[in-house]
Amino acid sequence: MTSQALTAVVRSAAAARFPSLDLDGLDRFDKVSLLEAVAEAAGWPAVVALGRELRALEQQPVIRALLQTPEPEAIVERWLRLERFGHSRNRTELLACERSGELVRLTLRHVAVDGGAIVAVNDLFVWGLFVALMESAGFEDIEAALPTADAAAPFVVHGPSPAPRDAALPSDTHTLALQLRAPAQPLPIEVANDESAPDAAHARLAALLRRDLLASWTVQDAARALGMSARSLQRALQGEGTRFSKVVHQTRVDAAQTLLTSTPLELSEIAFCVGFADQAHFARTFRSLCDVPPSAYREVAAATTGVEARGGPR
After folding, report:
1. Is CATH 1.10.230.10 the classification given to domain 201-305?
2. DSSP summary character for residue 53
3. What positions does the domain HTH araC/xylS-type occupy (predicted)?
4. Is the pLDDT of residue 307 over 70?
5. What angle do CA 149, 154, 156 make, to 5 degrees?
6. How far apart are the first and last CA of the chain?
């Protein structure tokens, strides 16, 4: 998801939540100025609430890709990967992940790539985003807190007992302790079978991969999920004239073709959604399998179907 797209969502949410707030004088792409105006009008909790507006986008392909895992630390790691894809000036670091039964505690840090300063409202907004991601993923009892001089009394920005609206923020807003309760029984991965070809290993493998294209699939992981040994899977694929890496690449390219012709996502967002390490790798693999680069494929599809390359009707 591009920074501009996220800023547009924030601006729309701010206008709806605070109709008396004059946003016309603000640069439409200046997220920080918008957040500062909201904080001045309604206090720091309103900034966290704007970050939680990400829940409204949970059906958006990028957000869905983030949430295709039951592990909270994996969701965070995918967000960090998305930040790198978008060449974000600010990045999030996962400092620690601790588990105690169903409780998970993540420690996050928000840093500027160039080593500069990040204003507090930007930190709070990002922490609201992470709360939204965990809410959308189904986690419960979520508490987000900033560190204070008294380790036993953190500054809670989201949870059952948040700090008062007029409470002064602690000096360190860049670090967050995010605690949540994971479901006791995570939903199992269901593998779709191709009834017309029940023994087609490549079809079963592709169905599995589509469940979570961002996962770093190995032959061993896939075979385990399919109820067979890695060697048996490799032999079955070889017998069908293909191999594991080829099915992985083809499945990702097939998914990219769908996104190219049905969404207005940027190429970098599509590369992220279908699991490529970076946009360059995506472009090379797509061209090798389709004989055209992704951008040309989108343009040809648009000319054929009467839908603009950016996704809207002509």
Report:
1. no
2. G
3. 203-300
4. no
5. 145
6. 24
Residues linked to residue 155 through DSSP beta bridges, in sequence order: 146
Question: What CA–CA distance (Å, rounded) separates 300 from 295?
Answer: 9
88: its two tokens:
């974000």
**Helix %, strand %, coil % of the chain (to 5):** 50, 15, 35
Largest CA distance in the chain: 68
Locate tokens 């589509």: which residue? 210
Token reading at 180: 């949540």
**Residue 212 exposure: Cα atoms within 13 Å on the Cβ side:** 20
Determine the 3-state secondary structure of 273 from DSSP: helix
User: What are the helix (H) ranges across 19-97?
Assistant: 31-42, 44-51, 61-66, 72-85
Q: What is the 3-state secondary structure (H, E, C) of 111-154?
A: EECCCCCCCHHHHHHHHHHHHHHHHHCCCEEEEEEECCCCCCCC
| pTM of the predicted structure, to 2 decimals | 0.87
Residue 14 has pLDDT above 60, yes or no: yes
Count Cβ neighbours within 10 Å for each residue of 277-313 and write b for 16 or more, e otherwise. eebeebbebbeebeeeebeebbeeebeeeebebeeee
Mean pLDDT of the chain: 89
Distance CA 210, CA 212 (A): 5
Token pair belonging to 155: 């500054």
- pLDDT tens per residue across span 164-206: 999 999 999 999 999 999 875 554 444 444 444 456 999 999 9
CA distance 22 to 33: 12
pLDDT band at residue 306 under the 50/70/90 scheme: low
Phi, psi of 225 (to 5 degrees): -65, -30
Q: What are the structural domain ranges in the chain?
A: 43-181, 201-305
- Per cent of the chain over pLDDT 70 is 90
